[in-house]
Structures are given as structure tokens and as C-alpha cells.
């Protein structure tokens, strides 16, 4: 789906206050998630995109080492009906390099630039997506020859790497504007169901399904009522676009239902601000979490302390969402001034960040309850399991 360059997808559960875990859940094997409900929800975005090349198993290993509660990730549904851990609709030449075709006569080669929905896992796993460092993340470590993993491969790695009940916040990559460029919400939810149900309710209880395309959230609740859902949004997705434009923001926007919100018009809900109304709209589809962008795309500056900063996540939004029974987990604050604003001023229940280790240190210093950093023994286990499960190109 389309994202402006500044955007980063995201979201899951947990907060400083203990979530209301019914006794019946705790006694039926669903207690693991509630072990993490005591924590502020720190999520590593695409693993830990600022620390390690994104969405690869090394990135998720880095996130585990950073003391997160939740691994945040995106999945695309491929032509072979497999859920692949990756953010982009197409193979981005700034992130992945072609090596060799899956077969000598493969007419789709080269794969870079192709839609993932039109490629098989076998084709995609010939790509080297570990060698290139993005300009926006100059300190990220690379892991050459690393390719992409399926969702099952990620689950297997985490099962190997830790006994902790780490949570997963999984975004289905669906294009709300151009439905033919990605698979349908029904296809995604069916694929989730096929992978999650065999792992049991205890595992499902550690999962949140998030999406910008709210049709997927509605479908999730219909097919898997126990699966938690998170309604992603930003100011480019909550209204119809201005006439003749392909996007909008808080200060320049159209009116009426957005393609991304399953036909919902946020202005039909009560609230003095669009942020409050979008919280009302998310509650109307029974979302468990609201996951807004932290900074409005109308803002010309990136730091909350700079003159002219325009937030999208506000205290009024958070208060409204909490009143309606939802958590609020914004993305992607990568500045401590912004994290401080979201956590202290707005009262969010979690954050999704590209720099989970720095955020972890700040949260500890400020007295927030987050998981302890793993010790030497735990780190050795993570590294050992990474070597065991790392998917490399054959090149």
C-alpha cells in the first residue's frame, strides 16, 4: 500500500496499567499475553529498522536484544499464497538486489521492481535484502546475502530464540486505493487463520492484526473474533482526497468517506477534532487499538519542540480512545522529545519505534516498566537461533 516516505507502519498491546484479563482466559491457557500486560508496550518497528536492515531475521533478533514487548512487522501475501515478512508492495531497488532467477527460463526475472503479489516465495527468496543501507538510517547494520522470511519462518525463529511471551503486531499490506495491486482482505485473513489456528489459542492471544485498510480489521473480527485488531491511520487516510489530488493532510484535505476506512466518514461521528472523531470511527469497527501516526504530514518540522510542529496524535485523541476502551500505540516516534510528548503529555499505552534500544533506555530512566534487557546467556541463544534460522540467498 502507499506510504509517504516519512511514514512507517505499525502496532500492538500492553500498557503501564494491567489489561483486564478475564479469569476464564487465564485458566484456559491464554495467560501468556497477560504476563506482558504489566509492561509499557515498546514495539520494534520492522524489527529495529534504525539499528539493523529492516524486516529481516537479524532485525528481529536486534529487537529482541533491545528489550521490546512486541515485534512489529508487515506481511505481504504472495502469488504462492504465503505470508511474507516485508513492508513494500513492490521489490524496492534501494532495499533489495537481484541475484539469480529461481529457474534459468523464468520470464519474470529480474524480480526487483515487481509486485510481491505476483511473485512466489521461491522467487522472492533469491533476493539479497540485507546488503543495502537506507540513506534515512545511516547507522543501521547490514547483513549481506540475507533474504526475506515467511511469517512461519519468523515464528519458528522467535520460538527458538526466547521463552518469553513476546507479542507480535502484524500489519496486512493492503492497498486501500488500488485494490488490484495487493491481495484482498479476505485472502489475508484466510492466510492468517491457516497459520495461526494450528498454533493454538495461547499463541493467537499474543497476536494483533493491524491494517490501514479497515476492511481487513472488519474481516478479522468476523473470521477470528478472538484475534486483537489495531486500526492504523494518519491524516492521509482518514478523509477522501481533495479533488484532483492523490493525498491530503490535516490542513489540506477532502471530505467524506476515505477508501482506506471501509466506507466510513469520520465526520459523521461526534468530537471537536478529527483525532477524536477517528477514535470514534475505530471504535465503531470494534478495533482493540488505535494506531495513529505521531506527527501530521502537514507538519514542516519533525520535532515537537520546533516552532510549527503539528501533531497528529493528541491527548484529546488518546483520552477519547481510552474512554471507548481502546489502547493507543502511535508510530513512528524516532526522537526522544516526541516520545516524551506521546508518553508523558498524551498518555499513550505504547509506541512503535525504529530505535527500540534507545527508547528502552529512556523508558527505564523515566521509571516505566519494560522487559529487562537479555543477559549474555540469552543473547548467545538469540544469536545461535539466528544462525540456525537465517534465510540466505543461494548466490
UniProtKB/TrEMBL annotation:
**Its GO biological process terms?**
lipid metabolic process
Q: Hey, what's the signal peptide range on this chain?
A: 1-20
Zinc: present as a keyword of the record?
A: no
Which Gene3D superfamilies does this entry report, sorted A to Z? Phosphatidylinositol (PI) phosphodiesterase
UniProt keyword annotations, A-Z: Signal
Keyword Signal appears in the UniProt entry: yes
Annotated GO molecular function terms are: phosphoric diester hydrolase activity
Q: Which residues form the GP-PDE domain?
A: 40-363
PANTHER family in the record, alphabetically? GLYCEROPHOSPHODIESTER PHOSPHODIESTERASE, GLYCEROPHOSPHORYL DIESTER PHOSPHODIESTERASE
What is the name attached to this protein's record?
PLC-like phosphodiesterase
Q: Which organism is it from?
A: Leucosporidium creatinivorum
Amino acid at each position: 500500500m502507499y506510504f509517504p516516505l516519512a511514514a512507517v507502519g505499525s502496532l500492538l498491546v500492553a500498557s503501564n496499567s494491567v489489561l483486564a484479563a478475564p479469569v476464564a482466559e487465564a485458566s484456559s491457557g491464554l495467560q501468556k499475553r497477560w504476563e506482558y500486560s504489566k509492561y509499557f508496550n515498546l514495539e520494534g518497528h520492522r524489527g529495529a529498522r534504525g539499528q539493523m536492515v529492516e524486516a529481516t531475521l537479524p532485525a528481529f533478533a536486534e529487537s529482541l536484544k533491545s528489550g521490546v514487548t512486541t515485534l512489529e512487522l508487515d506481511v505481504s501475501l504472495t502469488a504462492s499464497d504465503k505470508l511474507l515478512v516485508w513492508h513494500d508492495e513492490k521489490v524496492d531497488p534501494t532495499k533489495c538486489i537481484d541475484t539469480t532467477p529461481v529457474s534459468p527460463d523464468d520470464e519474470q526475472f529480474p524480480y526487483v521492481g515487481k509486485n510481491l503479489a505476483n511473485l512466489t516465495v521461491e522467487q522472492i527468496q533469491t533476493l539479497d535484502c540485507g546488503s543495502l543501507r537506507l540513506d534515512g538510517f545511516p547507522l543501521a547494520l547490514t547483513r549481506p546475502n540475507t533474504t526475506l522470511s515467511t511469517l512461519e519462518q519468523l515464528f519458528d525463529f522467535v520460538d527458538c530464540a526466547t521463552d518469553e511471551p513476546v507479542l507480535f503486531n502484524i500489519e496486512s499490506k493492503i492497498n486501500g486505493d488500488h485494490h488490484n495491486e495487493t491481495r484482498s482482505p479476505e485472502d489475508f485473513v484466510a492466510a492468517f487463520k491457516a497459520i495461526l489456528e494450528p498454533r493454538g489459542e495461547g499463541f493467537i492471544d499474543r497476536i494483533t492484526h493491524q491494517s490501514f485498510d479497515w476492511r481487513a480489521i472488519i474481516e478479522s473480527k468476523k473470521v477470528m473474533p478472538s484475534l486483537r485488531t489495531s486500526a492504523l491511520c494518519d491524516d492521509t487516510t482518514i478523509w477522501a482526497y481533495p479533488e484532483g489530488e492523490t493525498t491530503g493532510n490535516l490542513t489540506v484535505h477532502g471530505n467524506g468517506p476515505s477508501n482506506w476506512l471501509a466506507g466510513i466518514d469520520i465526520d459523521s461521528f461526534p468530537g471537536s477534532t478529527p483525532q477524536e472523531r477517528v477514535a470514534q470511527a475505530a471504535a465503531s469497527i470494534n478495533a482493540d487499538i488505535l494506531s495513529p501516526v505521531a506527527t501530521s504530514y502537514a507538519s514542516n518540522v519533525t520535532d515537537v519542540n520546533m516552532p510549527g510542529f503539528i501533531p497528529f496524535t493528541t491527548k484529546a485523541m488518546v483520552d477519547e480512545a481510552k474512554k471507548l476502551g481502546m489502547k493507543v500505540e502511535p508510530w513512528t516516534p524516532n526522537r526522544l522529545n516526541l516520545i516524551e510528548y506521546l508518553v508523558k503529555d498524551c498518555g499513550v499505552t505504547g509506541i512503535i519505534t525504529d530505535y527500540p534500544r534507545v527508547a528502552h533506555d529512556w523508558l527505564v530512566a523515566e521509571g516505566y516498566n519494560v522487559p529487562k534487557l537479555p543477559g549474555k546467556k540469552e543473547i548467545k541463544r538469540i544469536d545461535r537461533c539466528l544462525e540456525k534460522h537465517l534465510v540466505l540467498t543461494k548466490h
